[in-house]
Amino acid sequence: MIIVACQPPTTETPSVTGPETGGEETMSENCGDKSKLASDLLLYTWVEYIDPAIKDQFEAECGVKVIETNFDSNETLLASLQAGGTGYDLIVPSDYMVQLMVEEGMLMEMDFDIITNIQHMDRLNTNQYFDPEQKYTVPYFWGTSGFAVDTTVVTDHTDSWSMVFDPNSPYCGKISMLDDQRETLGAALMYLGYPINDVDPAHLEEAKQLLIAQADCVKAYDSQTMMI
Hints:
Layout: E1 2-4, E2 16-17, E3 24-25, E4 40-45, H1 52-62, E5 65-70, H2 74-82, E6 90-91, H3 95-103, E7 137-138, H4 162-165, E8 175-177, H5 181-191, H6 201-214, E9 218-221
Parallel strand pairs: 4-5, 4-6, 8-9
Antiparallel strand pairs: 1-6, 1-7, 2-3
Helix pairs in contact: 5-6
């Protein structure tokens, strides 16, 4: 999800240099009111979540420099903001973190009068549990998590999570896990046959012990170099 936190508008109106003429040209109408644009847009997001070409296009059309900073987990994002890392215009937390940040009063409401493309959004992706009144968020994208194998090395792979959690797996010491509490715990719960959102204390303890036992087989916990 993308969250907006507005900064005061710049006192200068940025200009755009036309790529063909080299002169001044009218900024894209998609950029909205020029008087409300700052010179920079501060983005705090996951690695590789924004196509560089999109940033280049935005900068060229709107005359606003995109300054991107990355985090590797929702918890890192939260800790950074709680420690005083303010000033971001857009941040990209996951669903449950949005809910927590709303409860903590850390987010600003969005101005949907200027976000006109919201009308084209699939309503199945709006008014979610973490933002039921659609005040703070715009859906960005969703996806699924699983496990992948390098078939040039692993020739006898299965589609079972036992490859990841079985301590007798021949791949012990050669696997990585996402550095994410929800993802790792959810995977452990699923392997044990429980729902990934299970809140039963006994089941959570069982999943915890499974992850502890698995730790020696994990070469790295990494959420930054696993994009597929």
